Amino acid sequence: MMGFSPISLGVRFLLELSALAAFGYWGWKVSPGGLRWLAVLALPLLTAILWTVFATPGDPSRNGDTVVATPGALRFLLELAILFGAAWALYNAGAKTPATVLLVVLVVYHLTALDRVAWLFRH
Length: 123
Prior knowledge:
This is DUF2568 domain-containing protein. It holds the Pfam family DUF2568. This protein is mainly alpha-helical. The protein is built from five helices and two strands; from the N terminus they run H-H-E-E-H-H-H. Helix 1 packs across helix 3, helix 1 runs antiparallel to helix 4 and helix 3 crosses helix 5.
């Protein structure tokens, strides 16, 4: 199962960290003056909270625990919104090359993790 392999999970973790950084960067670039610091802190924090709280129970790619039990299809949509949203945020902030690289890595990751996607849709 490629989507649950240590390499795939490591790549996914790096994508999650990249998303947090991308939303912080976007917040800095698009927020005026003093709000920049708030955006740099609040956007990644909100993203991390959403990522952590809404999970599918028993997900073998996580610890299996969750705060709010979320159907797998809804969790998949949340993951897509956050990860691909991060690529959009980079692009919107003017970081077009990093956005493109992130987009390509996201597509390749999801194509190699189709077994995890299928697992989510079954749960």
